Amino acid sequence: MEPQNASDQARLRQTESPRLRRMWGSRARRRSSVILYLALVLAGAPLLSGGIVVDVTEGRGIAALGALLTIFVAVAVLSTRLSRATRMSLPHRLLDERQRAERDTAHRVAHTTMGVLLTVVFVGAVYPVTFSPPEVVFPSWLVAPMLWTLMMVHVSLPACYLAWTQPDEPFDDEDPDELP
Amino acid sequence: MPTESRGETVHNRIAMLRAERGVSRRQLAEALGVHYQTVGYLERGEYSPSLHLALRIAGFFEVPVEVVFSTEPFPRIGR
After folding, report:
1. Domain of A89?
2. Which residue numbers delimit the HTH cro/C1-type domain (chain B) (predicted)?
3. Environment class of residue A114 by beta-carbon count within 10 Å: exposed (0-12), middle (13-18) or buried (19+)?
4. What pLDDT, in 10s, does the model give residues A82-97?
5. Chain B within 8 Å of A179 (Cβ-Cβ)?
6. Residue A13 CA, distance from chain mean position
């Protein structure tokens, strides 16, 4: 886990800063961030189904577009923070054996979960349309919210899993601010 | 502290040895090439090391590996 170059050193410094570790060491805090992240993703889904682009060109829906952009930014910021909190932002070579094992488990769980989710979506969306009369079509307003939710869950599921399951981080006994 | 993985419990005396030798978590972690939190998780029994890491930990303290790790609980010293 030795840094190979200046970029590695910068990444490690950023992720391992005592202030950041103090902030994210608590499992309760990490879990509340996961809940907030999922809530934001779910809140963004209905906004994507409303034909906002058409509304804006017709002079309506500015508030909805503002809300959607706010959610995009909040989701991006929170996703980045969760990645740093769980060290998903670091390359594999900078992790030790415990961290690599945890990341591998997170990827395995996320892969299985996404497989289940995609199967449910496939069966729910494609099966009824394929085996129904020709007048039954898949509702197009559902496509964007569904893709948004699947994409955001896929992107952050490993970090969310780690944030949720990792216990409170042990304190650094050389950092006077962290001594119990 | 015991680590339970797939029903296999591994007890270790890392915290005791570290305190006895006056070594901080960070010093031990740097000598082993792991994160200091990994030493913390080992001491809390929340992580079971690979055989390679277990041997390096024993090597650091210059004791046989069975002095540091055991499948049976270590006897308590004192009351």
Report:
1. 16-165
2. 14-68
3. middle
4. 999 999 999 999 999 9
5. no
6. 23
